[in-house]
Amino acid sequence: MKTAKRFAVLFALVMWANSGTTTEAGYCGAARYTCCPTDVCAPSGDYCQAKSSCKTMYKTVREVVWDKREYTCCKTVHDIVFEQVPVTCRKKVFETCYRDECFTVCRPVYQTCYKTVNYTVCKPCYQTCYKDVCYTVRKPVYNTCYRDVCYTVCKPCYQTCYKTCTYKICRPVCETHYRDVCCTGYKTEMQTCYRDVCYTICKPVTTYKEVEVCCGEWKTVVEKIPGPVIEKCVCEPGTYNWDPCTCCCIYTPGCCKKVQVQCPCTTICRKVWCPKTVIRRIPCTTYVTECCTKRIPYTVCHRVPYTFTKRVPYTCTRYVEECRTKQVPYTVSTMVRLTCTRRARSSPAPCRPNAAPPWFPTRSAIW
């Protein structure tokens, strides 16, 4: 693409150099009248003969020829460069100290308790079921006859009578009396007392100290590196020369020579650590133990006896005799003879001859 641009520029320069008048500029100067031969420019006698004359003519044909050339291009490449910078670091050193502290613990006290727990059990339950089973039996057929039979019975006849009885009873009579009883009771008296209790508290004390802290920041530095110097072939502009044989201009290219050309510079961005020291105030909090005393109230209960009199009721029971009368029933039985008639069953009819004995099978099923 660059080669085509160069040829176009060279062609334009040649056109500008060989241009004379407006007429001579057409067809790269080949159409100017000053370069025409005398016999061509002479007047023709016969127009028809001149029109029909045959002559070989030449014209300039431009052909685009592509040439492969190698060239070097430069591009900006960013490279990360690491630089070792000594840095002073500080680390924390922990120190273990011990102090005595009073604390309250809870000691487990076990107590055995019982609770009622309901639980479900599976108890087998048996159920007797019955099913109908058909079977064949031989059943005897009896013929029952009745007859009237007279008989005598003695039937008792009961009669209820009453007689008067006198009896004595002892009826209890309750009487309520009172008496004075001396009783001793107790009442609770509350007394508030105080005692001194020592306890320890920790008060925070904050102090500040200045510490040098090494810190810094990363800065980006842009550097330009000049490009390498390379040799490049440069063609000088060619010239157009008139060829009387062909009656046209022939382009003669210029000579090529090598020229040293420097490539564009390369820009590199790298980060540089810039250390600096900063003084900072660091707060340090320490706890100071202080023993304090306070008065704690507590309550003491005393049981104080006292005497009082109360009336207590008591019951005395005595029995009083009373005479009472009641009717006592008694039964008198008398036998009475009665004649009754009843229908008696006669003896059963005889069985049929050659009859099989009765058979009563019994079958039961339990499910």
| Amount of helix | under 10%
Strand order of the biggest β-sheet: 1-6
Element string (H = helix, E = strand): HHHEEEEEE
**Helix count?**
3
Give the averaged pLDDT, no decimals.
Answer: 77
What is the CA–CA distance across the termini?
A: 112 Å
Structural class: mainly beta
Uncertain spans, ≥5 residues at pLDDT below 50? 20-31, 349-367
Largest sheet: 2 strands, antiparallel
How many strand segments? 6
Strand residue percentage: over 45%
Q: Based on CA inertia axes, which overall geometry fits?
A: elongated
Cα-atom Rg, whole angstroms? 76 Å
Can you put this structure into words, describing what you see?
With 367 residues, the chain is mostly beta strands. The chain has a domain at 1-69 and 231-261. It has three helices and six strands, in the order αααββββββ. Strands 1-6 form a two-stranded antiparallel ribbon. It has a two-stranded antiparallel ribbon with strand order 2-5. A two-stranded antiparallel ribbon has the order 3-4. Strand 3 (239-243) and strand 4 (248-252) form a beta hairpin. Mean pLDDT is 77; it is low at 20-31 and 349-367.
Label this structure with key terms.
367 residues; 6 strands; 7% helix; elongated; disordered C terminus; two-stranded antiparallel ribbon; mainly beta
